[in-house]
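User: Let's play a game. I give you a shape written as tokens, and you guess the letters that built it. Ready? Here's round one.
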């Protein structure tokens, strides 16, 4: 392979994203544009011919941090004891909640918010943990119609 991948000669190998395989693979150059840049390549894995898609530099992904999930069978009683002095908040999809809030859900009963993330919250109930939505004005108003 040559240094400038856009000027690689016909017959040489380059890395390109294969349109059929959907991943970055070795391809052989089969044609150039009038300016001398790679135009078409052939995948050495599946044999498909397509436009050249040069390697893209991968940007580091941001890691999101979510709280460790709690085992409700073992920890619900401990959490209930820890937050027994807190007044439960009535759960609604349009409500606003934070970690360590105690909620009263119409169907699932009392629960404890473990973490919140992008308008979703992890809530531990006596039977199992659940993910509930919150801060959704559009959802509660549509139910009242």
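Assistant: Ready! My guess for every position:
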């Amino acid at each position: 392979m040559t240094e400038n991948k856009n000027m690689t000669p016909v017959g040489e190998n380059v890395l390109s994203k294969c349109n059929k395989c959907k991943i970055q693979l070795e391809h052989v150059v089969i044609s150039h544009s009038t300016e001398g840049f790679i135009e078409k390549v052939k995948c050495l894995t599946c044999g498909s011919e397509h436009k050249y898609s040069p390697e893209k530099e991968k940007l580091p992904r941001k890691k999101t941090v979510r709280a460790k999930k709690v085992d409700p069978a073992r920890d619900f009683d401990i959490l209930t004891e820890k937050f027994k002095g807190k007044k439960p908040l009535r759960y609604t999809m349009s409500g606003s909640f934070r970690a360590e809030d105690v909620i009263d859900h119409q169907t699932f009963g009392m629960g404890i918010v473990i973490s919140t993330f992008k308008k979703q919250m992890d809530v531990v109930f006596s039977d199992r943990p659940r993910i509930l939505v919150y801060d959704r004005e559009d959802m509660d108003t549509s139910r009242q119609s």
